[in-house]
Structures
1.
Amino acid sequence: MLEISHIRKKFVNQSLGQAATVLDDVSLTIESGEFFTLLGPSGCGKTTLLRIIAGLEQPTSGRILFEGLDVTSFPPQRRPFHTVFQKHALFPHLTIFDNVAFGLRIQKLPTREIHERVETALALVKLEGFDNRLPETLSGGQSQRVALARALVNRPKVLLLDEPLSALDLKLREEMQAELRLLQRQVGITFIYVTHDQQEAFTLADRIGVMKAGRFEQISSPEELYDQPKSLFAAQFVGANISLPVFGEVQGLRGSFEFSSCGQVLRAHHLIGQSEGSRVVAFVRPEKVSISTSQRSTEDNELSGSIMQVSFRGPYTEVLVQIGPEAWIPVLLDHQQARALELHVGQAIQVYFRPEDTVIFREEESD
Ligand SMILES: Nc1ncnc2c1ncn2[C@@H]1O[C@H](COP(=O)(O)OP(=O)(O)OP(=O)(O)O)[C@@H](O)[C@H]1O
Ligand SMILES: [Mg+2]
């Protein structure tokens, strides 16, 4: 439906006369009705890409196609898209009804149609009865809903949202996330949603595009991104508690590599892009790691370490285990298990994880 093809964007710094590449050959195809999330750290180019899709910014090169039509040179109002920004500007002196009706009045639609469409849009965002209120009398979440209603009332084919919930507190944000997802299914509009919050991306997205410095590191479903990250950056960007990587050297291409700092051999089933002898980083999700106070002889990877820290984390206990001079692994245990093991700082402990859950990346990717 929407094809973003080889987009590059350079900004020229006027005083220095230097050009900085902000988007570097970005390509992406978005399906009709999809909830697509752009996820990445601050400054990686998310807003710039969204503005180029919206037509608020011209790419240096590349094309935007909508249903096969090249819209790259179209002004924003000729594209069937609508943008909702982080800071939504409602007109302070207009009522909620008039704020939502604004775009329709510009199009000079009949009064009755305007009325019907505004009421439908306000009902969609659960603001029935707010018609005559002024923006200043609304809470943050309510005014963000008005911004959404104002977008929906135009019946865009694609809704572009740039961190629309980031100004809200956590609880309200989570509520609004659930409502947005429901709303998107209800109206069937394609959503492209920018966030730097991985939890938000996981909750909402059909697919996530992880961006780093103007490029996509990985585009996949949330599940695939979590279970089969394609780079260490993507692996570390998602997940509540990420294992600090252990460094080593590839020993054989049958899936083993030597863990350099302790000389212990680890096995991995996922080796991503390296050859024998290259320096690598091993990665495992903390919930895939278990610990034991005594040696076990199993097929699992096993490392000896000592407990650095035991922290209560609400639903679980996090145990930080030092496994080398510069290497730690956080392990998540349920409280009962943690209590039964009577863990204490300084205690010698064995750490286990399965080769199936171990991923190895090239070391240079760890920046
Ligand atoms: N008009 C501009 N002129 C020059 N540089 C710009 C301009 N707009 C953006 N940039 C630069 O482009 C880079 C990407 O900016 P962008 O706003 O797309 O990042 P972002 O991923 O949305 O970040 P954030 O999560 O902080 O919103 C930044 O380094 C920014 O300074
Ligand atoms: Mg931004």
2.
Amino acid sequence: MFNRFFRCVLLTTLLCMVSIAPGFAAKSPVIDVTSVRLGLHKDKTRFVLEMSEKPDVSVFLLAEPYRIVIDLPELNWQADDSAPRQKGVIQNYRYGLFKKHTSRVVLDVDGPVRILRSVILPPAAGKPYRFFIDIQRTDQASFMTAVRERRKEALAKEVAMAPQPPVQTPSGKKHIVIIDAGHGGIDPGAIGQSGVFEKIITLGVAQKLNGILAKNPAYHPIMTRNDDTFLSLRERVAVARGAGADLFISIHADSISRPDFRGATVYTLSETASDDEAAEIAHTANRSDLIGGVDLSAQDDTVQGILIDLAQRETMNFSVKVAEMIIPEIAKSGMKTRGRSHRFAGFRVLKAPDVPSVLVELGYLSNREDEKILKSQNGQTRLAQAIANAIAGYFDAVDP
Ligand SMILES: [Zn+2]
């Protein structure tokens, strides 16, 4: 099943509207969700959440596939959600932490819809706060108009909230290394044979790598995430560029329908993928935004795209150097490496134009032996050390 194969890289590659919260003064409360209901009425489908507090809610539509996205404060989901998740236009729903202070509920709908009403009711008759939306079918043109309007708003917001440079500039000539733990929050990444989530593995290895590098005065490591939070691709790249990074390492683990497949692969960016498989992975990955429910339809405009492309050609060679150093180190760590372990693909996560970037697929969670290594503390430490050795080798080579 191709789906599973792509699952791992799927969410590394999201483009979405960035809405970085500008430092909340007070800490946001976590709101309990105590009940969830779907209701079918003559001319509409209703989705209801009962909650312990009055939430701030943002509702919008996304296309391809048709979805309704509901952003809420951080939720503590206590509702029984074992009842059927399909009713009327709603085919399914899912939820999870989208980023710090924001949980996201995504409703998959079966066609173009419009939001008739979005309402918060105060507590009454023994019921707590209730949030509901009424959804009605509509035509494709009206749906797309609503999607486009939302996209314009999101882009305007993004421009207003361009990435900030880091508060503290690291002193001296330390090499700034961005460690990017793949996936997180609402996006679990690949799921292993034993049910382990890729997002847990990637964070474990990232934290160990961070620990190793932090001990060496030559490095200033920065993690894109250090907890179970969803980060869009754009936010990940923004961390690298805002910090003036010298190197960007994105950490992942793969999954495939063939359980005998093993080993690590290291990807660098190329405009043309090295083979059909890599091309297909990148193509699918770059179009997929299913789990996080983010909008990747807003593309680079052409001029910007060309400028980025020019800058990337300079850094691509450096990325290749890193990749070629990581593979033998991983092989020494005990994890297998695949036949052609270094591949090129058009991953958006690697497109910070001025920062050499690699994406490491540490191994296959769909393979029992690989999964055992990836899950174990010892295995994670060995992999982190392997990457750290490669980083040292790289900087020795390019900046002796
Ligand atoms: Zn992944």
